[in-house]
Description:
Chain A is of the alpha/beta class. In chain B, a hairpin with a 7-residue loop joins strand 16 and strand 17. At the A-B interface, helix 2 of A face loops of B. Chain B: Keywords: Membrane, Transmembrane, Transmembrane helix.
Amino acid sequence: MFRISGGEVYDPLHGINGEKRDIYVRDGKIVAPEDVDQKHLEVIDASGLVVMAGGVDIHSHIAGSKVNIGRKIRPEDHRRDPVPRSQVTRSGVGYTVGTTFVNAYRYARLGYTTIMEAAVPPLKARHTHEELMDTPLIDKGCLILMGNNNFILRHIGSGDYDKIRNFVSWLLHACKGYGIKAVNPGGIENWKWGKNVAGLDDLVMGYGVTPRQIITTLIRVNEELGLPHPLHLHCNNLGLPGNYQTTLETMKVAGQSRLHLTHLQFHSYGGESMRNLSSQAPVLAEYINEHENLSIDVGQIIFGEVTTMTADGPWQYTLYQLSHNKWANSDVEYETGAGIVPFLFKRDNPIHATQWAIGLELFLLIQDPWRVILTTDHPNAGPFFFYPQIIKLLMDKKYRDEMLASVHERASCTLLSQIDREYSLYEIAIITRAGPARRLGLRHKGHLGVGADADIAIYPKEVDAEWMFSNPRYVFKDGLLVVKDGQIVTDYMGRSLLVETAWEESIAEEIGKEFDRFYSISLENYPVELDYLPRYEVIPCR
Amino acid sequence: MDKVILRLKERSNIPVEAEAICPDLFLTKSQQEIEELALYYGNKGRRLGDFFQVQGERSDNIVIEGEIPNFKKIGQGMSRGNIHIQGDVGMHLGALMKGGRILVEGNVSDWLGAEMEGGSIRVKGNAGHLVGAAYRGSSRGMRGGEIIVEGDGGSEVGELMRRGLIVIGGRAGDFVGAFLIAGTIVVLGPVGLRPGAGMKRGTIVAFQEPDLLPTFHYNCLCQLSFLRIYLHHLREEDLNIPQEYLGGFYKRYNGDTLELGKGEILVWAGQVA
Lengths: 542, 273
Ligand SMILES: [Zn+2]
């Protein structure tokens, strides 16, 4: 039981913009002043400090089979970043593909307390949860890959929509998932034949269905099941010049329905070839501004080492050919695939500099901060621990212009230099916690109102936003002090966030037949049991 | 010449991480400060003075007396000075070094001069595996400098090497110059299996007929002036280079044609002509 006293509070959900407020915490929740015993109250002095809810990352890759392949092919990544243990923490390694514990510690030390693992193949769900069990401090959820699943593709073809909804519902249950993710719908299935899809109306080989049909179906299922988070979509044609048209068309496919488009930066390109890749961020931003059903996260480029990893196998092969770096490809039976390629984003490279500017354009040109979310698609466009640098770029026009001047001049072909907008702390609180929490349907996160989880980050108030957001004075998780002055002070296990939806038993029988014939494991071993998770919380549907 | 002498107090089998034994560090330190340098003994932190009797200070000339096959990372990243090791020594000797010179009277273990950038290493005994190689996952091994091993070398000598010279006086293990990017490897004794597997460019010189992969192709019989210069240099380094090697002909094979195929393996063909 304690009171956070005298801090400057930024709680956009309740319109609190830097006013001095006291926050009361009891039993891991934020409570009203009358619900605590004022006499026996510990007081945390937050005067001169900035108080926000714990950060929420809507899209990151920190656990599961492709992260692990990344770890396996990148010992050099680890050798440069050893992390010794402390009294409280375990030893491990960074950097782009860190160990589970180190990832968790680093998130907590930024004041982030909830993370979505953004691409979990159903067959690898057990592995993913096992890694998440070793990812302490933070709450976590899994978005389950469904955009290239045999069962779904086949029944889109046969028009049996009810069966698909039943299956999706069962699959979320079996994977202990939180939401539906689709990556390059249809393209990964075609990659099994060495091909891809180039647009929404290309055919998926062997199924006779199109990406457009897959997206439409999954949006419909998502909304009918009333899942807390909209369909989480990685569009077709990621990374390719001219792909903004596909992205625009995809947005139109959604109609009035909710849709979340992930790492939009990678989908906002004009031009006809890599040589003249250009920004179409303004066009997409304008469309998003006019359509409140859409939300995006950015996938901002950070210059330096990254490890690209995605279910988008064909794109990863292209990237391998472009970079000549090492490449790992993974095929996940009936469900999806993955590719992993280390990559270096260079300031003096015209394409990379343009990509960097495009990300910032999206942040700055999309008017409603509730629908643009800060991500680096960790570790694809940059490691998550560079979030404070992005915050500084958004808050400080001078710093942004200096950086723009230091990168390849081609970045100046974008609108970036002409945009004067600077984010306020209030808006930063939206794009890093309130917005993603709302978009994920996590009603008890991302804000500091009564009933919210006591996930709280307290930062020193500094002019240099990068320093400020890298050095929280205190971070609380469920009311426990986990970070103090940059050090992890408590070991604590967060919860797995799940949804529960209904399905008809008949579906299990049908799936069972498929498993007997085609899967490498039996149906009995497939679903992740609830007992398997050390702690969990079911998030209600809409 | 000023020097710091380290006399081993007691021999042990427990591994010691000794990157603190480095001329760059010793140069500015008093005897007492040198004794206080931190080493890891197994998983326990210890002082250098716990292991060695230290004589001398503030010098980048280091002499180590005693057998220290359990001491790793000596001279790691050094950029200047000398290290003279009078017995056997452990893994990672001179790894990442940029300059200076290391002389070993005995044998060394694996990863000798791994990813080194400059300077020279001379070993009078044998070396372990991965001489001048890349650490696992790295894109490049040795990037410059010279390693001369008078005895035998283990497997993967010069793996992913990018520049520089490695000489093995005796036999070399399997995969000599695997994935070689550039640079020269000279093996005076027999060569193990699959020399130059995956090599892009660079030169491997052998004096006994190696078993080549089918992806290497015979080009021609040749005499190469660069090789004569190299071999003269090795003679000056007191290596036993027979006169007929200097004047003889060499069979040139190019490969690995699964890769770029611009690498060459030169095999001494005797006094043909
Ligand atoms: Zn991603």
